[in-house]
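Standup notes
- DV: blocked on the single-chain target, sequence here:
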Amino acid sequence: MRKKKIAKIMLAAACVAAMGAGSLAAFSGCANDTETITVSGSTSMTELMQALAAEYEDAHPNVQIIVNQGGSSVGISDTKEGLNDFGLASKKVDEGDGVKGVQLCLDGIALTVNKDCNVTQVTNEEVFDLYMKGTAIQDTITTAIARDQASGTREAFNEGIKDPEGNDIKTHYNGNYELSGYTHAKWDEQPATGSVISLIEQSTVSIGYISLGSVLMSSANIKALAFKGYGQEEYVAATAENVLNGTYALQRPFTIVLSTTRELSPAAQGFYDYIMSEEAQAVITDEGCVSTYGK
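- DV (later): unblocked, structure below
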């Protein structure tokens, strides 16, 4: 596959050279009929979509797929405005305002720390108290890393972590810390999954939340903690199996965002049909995500 991609780059360079030389005959032999597909949105879904795109491009050499990041909100807004072929959102997207969401697969939200941190498991209450009160977790974890407001991961995390009465962080916090009724240090907000991983690699006293697939596929010095969710009596390991059986409480869908006002181009429809097919499930599971095909 890498050789094929290199070949594409070399072909493009040859085309540029031919244009520079003014040779129409040489240029006519170049692959100028390449069809471009653009998807954009969730940074949590980027690596998965790049892997799916690579497989599809390998079988369709006349197709180039561009995967742009920006967050789930960007994936939705780009789809509304016609700036992509379809969007990526790491949360549920209801139909309305010109878009609809179709579930691609499931993903866990991993509570993630440095591998050298001695904490191995954490409760809902401990996470809530750190993020909302600034209370250290097990006298060890003192820094709370969060995603920015464009992130679907942040929205799912805020809905999954609850206070003693069962009210989630989203209920308490809507962009204004004072509204929550809690006093705590400000969260360290990051714009992308990669920046959260980078900070956790540098600190043994920090915790963040990212895609479980990103943890499983990463070579970084990070690990996912076992989690006891609200109302649960036991800690549950952050695994794809436990996401699928529902025992791991922090999870969300990976969603393809489609326009309801325009149809996909034939090229984009072909790629969409592939990622939603049985054929694509091996790539989805290889990337640490949870296939729900046929379920």
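- Follow-up: The chain has a mean pLDDT of 88.
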